[in-house]
Design a protein that fits this description.
The chain is an alpha+beta fold. About 30% of the residues lie in helices and about 20% in strands. A hairpin with a 5-residue loop joins strand 5 and strand 6.
């Protein structure tokens, strides 16, 4: 009984070797892509992991990048500087979006691309200072769409080993993909 238990436990604790992060501007499907900066979890060794179930569903949120970041930073300095001509002339979320957000066509293009990857859209916000598209999909879909590897370094933890890749046409449009690190039970 002791040997059988030891063998069963050894199978459960099998780990995979660490592969270098995926980089480059071409996905595994040959499409031209850009990789988005991605924060990896701290305190977890991603090189020692358990395989993840490809059919598990994860909820993600795509956030849009800000256009004209330098202009926005300059405007914020002018608004916050006492004595400046624009001091305390705050913009509404709609004004911020109009000057610094994505266009409706860009928003719709990103949404259509997500749907073409098989994702289910679960929420969206357009026209404010914080636009997003919430969506869900299986780990297998996510790995394929964003050219990443999702691993399980600890029980009930999932994390991407790679920076997510998006089509190059979305460079400067998509800012981040949130939710690639999951702690706790999945859907």
């Amino acid at each position: 009984m002791g040997l059988a238990l030891a063998l069963a436990c050894a199978g459960c604790a099998a780990v995979q070797p660490c592969a270098p992060p995926r980089t480059g501007n071409v996905s595994t499907t040959g499409e031209s892509v850009v990789r988005l900066p991605h924060d990896r979890p701290t305190g977890m060794e991603l090189c020692t992991y358990h395989p993840t179930p490809e059919d598990k569903v994860i909820q993600l949120e795509l956030e849009f990048a800000m256009r004209n970041q330098a202009e926005f930073n300059q405007l914020m300095q002018q608004i916050q500087a006492p004595g400046a001509p624009k001091h305390k002339e705050w913009l509404t979320p709609e004004q911020i979006h109009e000057r610094f957000g994505e266009t409706r066509a860009q928003f719709d293009d990103v949404k259509s691309w997500l749907q073409s990857q098989g994702f289910t859209i679960t929420g969206e916000n357009y026209g404010g200072s914080s636009d997003y598209i919430r969506f869900k999909g299986t780990i297998g879909q996510i790995e394929k769409a964003f050219d990443i590897r999702i691993v399980s370094p600890e029980y009930d933890h999932y994390a991407s080993m790679d920076d997510p890749a998006v089509p190059a046409r979305f460079n400067g449009v998509i800012g981040s993909i949130d939710g690639l690190e999951v702690e706790g039970p999945l859907y």
